[in-house]
């Protein structure tokens, strides 16, 4: 497989499909930002700003959140059980088929 498929669900439940080549070394925040979703990524991916907050709707094989990410998520007023910081999700084959909702609006 040389393509990673990412789906972004909007408020109406419509899903947009993003295809990323496997050899690109990016995290999900960078991909969403490059695709012009409202993801600022102010801290540059250091798990310090939460402007990359997403809800993972589908995706079982993700790397688990580390303490720094969990601490940051704890400060947010509206987290869900699928809340993640997109900058802490490397875009690799294990996330193929992931469905996320951007929660920064
Ligand atoms: S870009 Fe700042 S927490 Fe993800």
From TrEMBL:
MF terms from GO for this chain are: 2 iron, 2 sulfur cluster binding; electron transfer activity; metal ion binding
Name of this chain's protein: 2Fe-2S iron-sulfur cluster binding domain-containing protein
Q: Which domain of life is it from?
A: Bacteria
2Fe-2S ferredoxin-type domain residues are 2-105
Might you name a Gene Ontology BP term for this protein?
P450-containing electron transport chain
Alphabetical list of InterPro entries matching this protein: 2Fe-2S_ferredoxin-like_sf (IPR036010), 2Fe-2S_ferredoxin-type (IPR001041), Adrenodoxin-like (IPR001055), Beta-grasp_dom_sf (IPR012675)
The UniProt keyword set, sorted, is: 2Fe-2S, Iron, Iron-sulfur, Metal-binding
Quote the SUPFAM superfamilies the UniProt record gives.
2Fe-2S ferredoxin-like
State the organism named in the record: Rhodocytophaga rosea
